Target: Peptide hydrolase
Amino acid sequence: MKLSLIFYLFVLSQAFPLAQEDTISLYNNDLRIIKTSPNEFKIVSEDEKLKLKQEGVNFIDVTNYYPIDAVVGQEVLASPRTRLKNLKDWFKRPKQVDDEPEAPIYNYPIKANYEKEVHFLFEGINKTRIEEKLTKFSSFWTRYYKSKSGFDSSNWLYKQLISISIHSDLIQIEKFHHKEWDQFSIIARFKGEIDDIVVVGAHQDSINLKDPLHGRSPGADDDGSGSMTILEAFQLLAEDKDFKPYNTLEFQWYSAEEVGLLGSQDIFNTYKSKDKKVVAMLQQDMTGYTKDTIEAGIEVHIALIQDFVSQPLNSFLKMLFDTYSDIPYHLMSCGYACSDHASARRNGYPSSFMMEAVPNSNAKADWGHSENDVIDQLDFNHMKDHAKLTIAYAYELSLARDLY
Ligand SMILES: *[C@@H]1O[C@H](CO)[C@@H](O)[C@H](O)[C@H]1NC(C)=O
Model:
């Protein structure tokens, strides 16, 4: 990609005569700034972004959230030609910039404190209900962040949350709007005694990588499964009259994950700028596919991601597996920016990520992000396993005191 970046900048520098260079803006010319690793930045067009995604490269699109002018510093005051040259040079240099502050270390519980309550909630997990809701959620033509049906699917989800929580005065449902596209993110908040926040996340949007705007994209597994898994956990907690969290507990459904974690960045960057304290974030992106794992003769498990995540939070999650899960975890790596937990991490919030059983093959790449990600091949027992861990995490951590 380096080559195409340089080529692109070359074309860019040739395409505009000097007098017009003033109008060159990263924000208005279909140019995006993406991060493909903690220190690696690229300038790409929307098309190149899509191509990277097709090649399986993960990234964070930081265009709207990166203080590029500050980084290039005084150089913004230079003449347009110098500025463009400096910008080019800046992107070619290895980056010293660290915009990913270390998360504080919190004292997460080292043992479960609410086994009776949590096990009681497990009784209520309803696979039929998850299946019904996922059937509806994956029936929208696509949940692409810029599509009309993607907007409609957000509204459907919002209405589900409203109807679940209508009688609760503890819960607020918030539409989190994004400036550049219509599909909103959604936050369902249990107001705690204090403002520290425990987050459960999944992403709403889907994508057909061959034709994002028009192609069919049921996104049943990616990430309809995670979205409906955490919805089930939310419903059980919302209907539990005895549940009153100490920390504020938020369930978040992100828009625009598939295009560089845009929705979750909007939320966590906003939280950071408002000095909100997120003490833990757990992402669940794909919770329903076990077929390849079973066929490969590997035990059904949950993949606990071990790279670019919070190790203290992972220790807490391992304790939850020991206490609450019928199936084990397998440690897996998924690389930089592989889902929305990366947006929390980038803002110095501890975050972790668990996903469905991962076989030792890449078979899934054939149908992910296409019209083939349909509900028929999903395993609702697996979603139930994920729902259990979600409930355990939400319950134990939102009631934890003395985290610091
Ligand atoms: C589970 O959900 C289905 C579909 O919403 C519902 O018809 C059924 O009564 C539920 N089962 C229980 C035990 O609540």
User: Anything to note?
Assistant: The pocket of 2-acetamido-2-deoxy-beta-D-glucopyranose is lined by residues 126, 128-129, 132 (CB under 6 Å). The radius of gyration is 21 Å. Residues 1-28 have pLDDT under 50 and may be disordered. The first helix runs from residue 2 to 15.
